[in-house]
Amino acid sequence: MSQREISVSRDQERLRLDRFLVCQGISASRSRLKRMIEDGAVLVNGSRRPPGYLVKPGDRIAILELPDSERPSVAAEDIPLQVVYEDEYLLVVDKPAGMVVHPAPGNYRGTLVNALLGRSQKLSGMAGPERPGILHRLDKDTSGLLLVAKQDEAHRLLAAQLMSRRMTRTYRAVVWGRLEGQGSISAPLGRSPFDRQRMGVSVLKGRPAVSHYRVLENFGRMAALVEVNLETGRTHQIRVHFEHLGHPVLGDPTYDRGQREIIRKLNPEERHLMQDIGQSLKRQALHAWRLAFVHPATKRPMEFHSLLPADIESILDKLRGFSIDKKYE
Questions:
Q1: Is 276 a catalytic residue?
Q2: Which among 106, 154, 240, 258 could bridge 89 via Cys, Cβ 3.0 to 4.6 Å?
Q3: Helix (H, G, I), strand (E, B) or coil at 63
Q4: Which pTM does this prediction carry?
Q5: Strands of the chain, DSSP E
Q6: Where are the alpha helices (DSSP H) in 112-173?
Q7: What CA–CA distance (Å, rounded) separates 54 from 73?
Q8: CATH architecture entry for 4-70
């Protein structure tokens, strides 16, 4: 979804793309506009073009990311939230799948931040005006527990726990194929040079990323339920790491490499079941189910759990009904 879309008229033809944007009153320097175009934040007829592209009548220019001066202010909205815990220093929210955490290009309304502002103006400002109180994030289609700071000092102390890996974030995911025991995935992650919305394993330019997993349950050759502890917290880390391992998360259309190889090895009944599950699951089967940290004021250990949502439980029921397998204790 673009923040702004402009059609090129006949009197604007033969202008460079960056110059065209300046003429449209986009309040940013030419260098800033050039970076936006090169980063893929400006599309011509749905495709990336260089800053020197000469626009033609009928071209549709979509601006996906507006400059800071043109971004709408973050508004308080009356959106229901499932708050697991709250005091004067922090709150723990159980985020549903489908909700974006903070405003970003294409999502300046209906986010968790909009909902937080709608219920309380007392949020930490350390993460900036568009991310009040936000310490860490969950992907839009990942559900589960998320910690929010209400005071700057609480934010600072909780962020220190996060950085020093004293805060525990544990996820549960259903992944393609059979896995055994437990293990660690250590693979540096970086943003794809071809698609700015996608991350990938990058040995040369990636940042260190480590995920520790334990298999809880196997469903024949079809899938496995795993528990994952993050040692680092990179964007899309679990999704990319399990794709790298050859066992992508079920329902993930972005990181699904290896899925076809697993499907190829299944018998017709197994394939039919997995096709049925794929049609019923509208997002990646990934849930942040446990969060543990030390309270910044009382210094007491805090631990919270979230039940698996109904959509993930439903696919687990289908898998269990088809395949009986030993559950790891």
A1: no
A2: 154
A3: strand
A4: 0.76
A5: 4-7, 42-44, 60-63, 83-86, 90-95, 143-149, 168-176, 182-186, 189-191, 199-201, 210-219, 223-230, 286-294, 301-305
A6: 112-119, 152-163
A7: 33
A8: Roll (3.10)
Superfamily of domain 74-164: Pseudouridine synthase (3.30.2350.10)
In this prediction, residues 35-54 reach a mean pLDDT of 87
pLDDT in tens, 171-202: 999 999 999 999 999 999 988 777 767 888 98
What are the boundaries of each domain within the chain?
Answer: 4-70, 74-164, 168-305+317-329
Digit-coded pLDDT (tens) for 60-86: 998 886 655 445 578 888 999 999 999
> Which member of 139, 252, 256, 325 is catalytic?
139
- Mind giving me the DSSP string for 228-270? EEESS--TTHHHHHHHHHT-PBTT-SSS-TTHHHHHHTS-HHH
pLDDT computed for residue 1 by the predictor: 41
* Residue 136 to residue 242: CA distance in whole angstroms: 21
Distance CA(226)–CA(63), nearest Å, equals: 39
